[in-house]
Amino acid sequence: MSCCGRGYSAVWGVLLLSVSLIAMPLNAAALFKTPASVKQMLGQKLMLDLRYYCAELPVQGQCRTPMTQLPPELAALIRDYDIGGVILFAENLHSIEQIVQLNHDLQQAAAESALKLPLFISIDQEGGRVARLPRSLATSFAGNMAIGATFAEHGTKYAAAVGRVLADELLPLGINVNFAPTIDVNVNPLNPVINVRAFGEDAKLVAELGGAMTAAMQQRGMIAALKHFPGHGDTEVDSHLGLPRVEHSAGQIRQIDLKPFADIISQHAPGMIMTAHIQYPALDNSTFTSKDGEQMLKPATLSRKILHGVLREELGYNGVIVTDALDMAGISKFFTHTEAVVQTFAAGADIALMPVKLQHPGELPALAKLLDALATAVDNGDISPTELAESYQRIVTLKQQYPLLPQAKTQALQLAQAKASLGKPEHRQQELLLAKAAITQVKPATADWPLTVSDSKKLLLVLPDQMKAQALAAALKHYAKQPFDIAVISLQQTDLSQAAAQIAAADLVISGFISPMQSLADIGGMDDLTGIRNIAAAYERQTQQYETLLPLINAQKKAHIFLSLRAPYDISRYGRHADVVLASYAYNTAEDASAMAAGNATYEALAQALLRLYPLTGKLPVTVAGYND
Q: pTM, whole model, 2 decimals?
């Protein structure tokens, strides 16, 4: 369908009126004055995934070549179709020089387009487990639940500090949208995908901390994107793998799930809000027919009642709505990619994230086909021409409000600024301070411990893998005043024949476990399905190994400290086996697990806590059965 179909005149009139209402700064006016055609507006509403790209059609399987340099054919797509944004993953991000060059080339392609609008260049840099930049390079922090654990003692101090540092490190790289903070209220201990990505289970606490982080990022010039609307906190299905349903009443939804969104919208005007691929029958019980002919409830991403009725009309949100990735099974299992984009635009979403795969030359024509189909949908009224123009205007307005292009006058100066900012000592100090403030003593209930780590000569570390054992051992040796003899049992090892002897030889056993297992969000997305299956198998083996070792530790009556390294709900299962229980809410190591002040802050904080070098002030931000319920 041509851009000059029946709907075009309506779009043109609305667009010219809306563009004339922009109060543009003089230095930005040239970027935002060009009238847009239907296809150009639609191009601005797409945010592409460029994680992998193969110059030739893969002979077997999918392309797994990271896109670290922008190929001419992808630059041409951005230029020719006036694409509005891209999302970057860990595979795209190797060194400061490479990241700066890649983002420069992406923006150059956009500058050569007809509209010349800068790109949204986005990333999932939440902190904690979901952090795409190399941890040895950039400050990544302990994550949201760690921040939640500091709230009782420090209020919003660390939420704001993390927001500032994230913005200060991302912007010089040329990244201008951060898909953070996660403001889901994690009321379900079995939640496989949110858990420690949430600040906690109390909606008011989540709203305050999420608001502080949003404000801090946006005051620094970084666009924040709240997620996942209307809430992913009470699910037991990962929306990467299926379609979760939240059975809350309308009252519960407004008191719990929606409260953080409502509060932050009213107080901080977040630039973006990301939708969730989740069914909320109390908000929308209408159905659709899936591509396999099944009748199903509409997920929020495709629900006009939820995106327009609740988010726009009820909560008064006037910013940009971006979908969660449309390749996730919560959408792709039930819709073709074209149907999904048409329906989410009709529902009120402004930007479709990862709408089509473009991983080799054979897939590139899919973008033109998608845009043709979307233009046809505008022409036949499936997408309102008026709402298309209004949506485009929201995107243009947001691009005008924030400094999408690096402020440095030259690329050399930008590179120098990025090198000076990423992982600088002041930021690493904030990373360690948060990790220490979050460490929570769950057992014993009093300040006194029934054991003293520093009095022990021989320590046995029982940890999920060698990297984590190396990180904790290095930190203990670094901060202790006397040397330790440290032995290690990795839960990845298959031979436990020497375990009983190792336990017998130890003065003290320090064990740690990570629960639940990593999700697709942690490691990237739907392209990692094979990897997540391997992780699931490894996690099952680790669980079996750990639960084999615990009776051996108990039988020998060894002094024992348990470290809950991720979601603290596992303390209900394992805390009874130990004399002392600590929660850290994080387990990440940097590429060099033994390095100090270079991405291993959680283990530095744990080592100092074990050595009683500072008072433990963290408080559980979620209910752990048998301890704070």
A: 0.93
